[in-house]
Amino acid sequence: MYNYNHLYYFYVTAKAGGVTSASTHLRISQPSLSSQLKVLEQSLDIKLFQKAGRSIELTHSGAEVFGYCRQMFEFSEKMSEQISKRVPSSTRKICLGVSEHVDRSFVADVVSSFLKKYDSDKRPKVTVISATQNQLLEKLRFKEFDAILTDSGLTDPNFVDLDRAEVPVVLTCSSQWKPIENVNKQDSFAAIDGIISDEDSQWIVPSSKFKFRGEIDKFFDTNNIKNKIAFESDVISSLVHAVSDEIGFAFFPILYVNQFLREKSLQLLGPKEGYWKYQLSLTCHIQNKDDVLVKQLADSFKDICLKETTIA
């Protein structure tokens, strides 16, 4: 009879694609995990992994063993999921992983919309955890997150998009800014020309680690715009306040600033349709796509995206 723990450690390592990620998930040291995998190989009298550059991959025999392990452990996971679905929502927990690049106010709106679907005594407990893209993928792979919210597309066949939003990226400025004479604020490039013609004009941008910053830089390069930067930050709300305080001009996905446009603390320059599209997706593990709570979270995501992309 094979050691159940050794088989599970092998399953997790193969699924994680390496000992480092697997040891973190299993909460054991890398040497200990490597040692137990070696014991399993000795008991089976086969080689399970082989080196592939700096990483490892399954051997032909390892892939065969993984196929059996996958059936065994995924059946157990499916049983656990089916049982949890019958648990009252008030005792359920849902964990949402969020990319560092996604605005926190938007996330709060999505979670609030989700929780309001339940009476106060029946609400599930929601935990939101910010993480890097790699951390999001790793934790979703092991279903430590019920869903993740990110602005980067995923291609892993184990994941499925519950909903994807493509929203306009608009140009904004302080409500106090006055364009130069004869400039049509709603014309896409007339609005930008009006900014460029003012030698004192400056830009507000997210930090270079943001995917959205790359999109802005590409737009500047394509249109030969000199980006005299006054302020950059990895906190979206601080960028919005900088624009409102007349520090400079900024591009934003409309759903991050629509509230400020409605309140008239910011004004829109250029067309409502924006200059390009920004993507956000709510993604889950394929085995969780039919979970009622996950579906309702997706409905809330869709509702908030629709609300905040509709310009009054």
The DSSP helix count reads: 11
CATH architecture of the largest domain, by name, is 3-Layer(aba) Sandwich
Total strands: the figure is 11
Q: Helical content, roughly?
A: 40-55%
CATH topology of the largest domain: D-Maltodextrin-Binding Protein, domain 2
Secondary-structure class: alpha/beta
| Average pLDDT | 86
Shape: elongated
Q: What is the subunit organization of this protein? A: single chain
Strand content: 15-25%
The SSE order reads HHHEEHEHEHEEHEHEHEHEEH
Total domain count: 3
Rg over CA atoms, rounded to whole Å, is: 24 Å
Q: Give unreliable regions as ranges.
A: none
Q: What is the CATH class designation of the largest domain?
A: Alpha Beta
Largest sheet: 7 strands, mixed
Terminus-to-terminus distance: 67 Å
Describe this structure in words.
- By secondary structure, the protein is of the alpha/beta class.
- The chain folds into 3 domains: 4-85, Arc Repressor Mutant, subunit A (Orthogonal Bundle), CATH 1.10.10; 89-165 and 278-308, Periplasmic binding protein-like II (D-Maltodextrin-Binding Protein, domain 2); 167-277, 3-Layer(aba) Sandwich (D-Maltodextrin-Binding Protein, domain 2), CATH 3.40.190.290.
- Helix content is 45%, strand content 22%.
- Strands 3, 4, 5, 6, 9, 10 and 11 form a 7-stranded mixed β-sheet that branches.
- Helix 1 (4-16) crosses helix 2, helix 1 (4-16) packs across helix 4 (60-85) and helix 5 crosses helix 11.
- The relative contact order is 0.14.
Primary descriptors:
single chain, 312 residues, alpha/beta, Arc Repressor Mutant, subunit A, D-Maltodextrin-Binding Protein, domain 2, 3 domains, seven-stranded mixed sheet, two-stranded antiparallel sheet, 11 helices, 45% helix, elongated
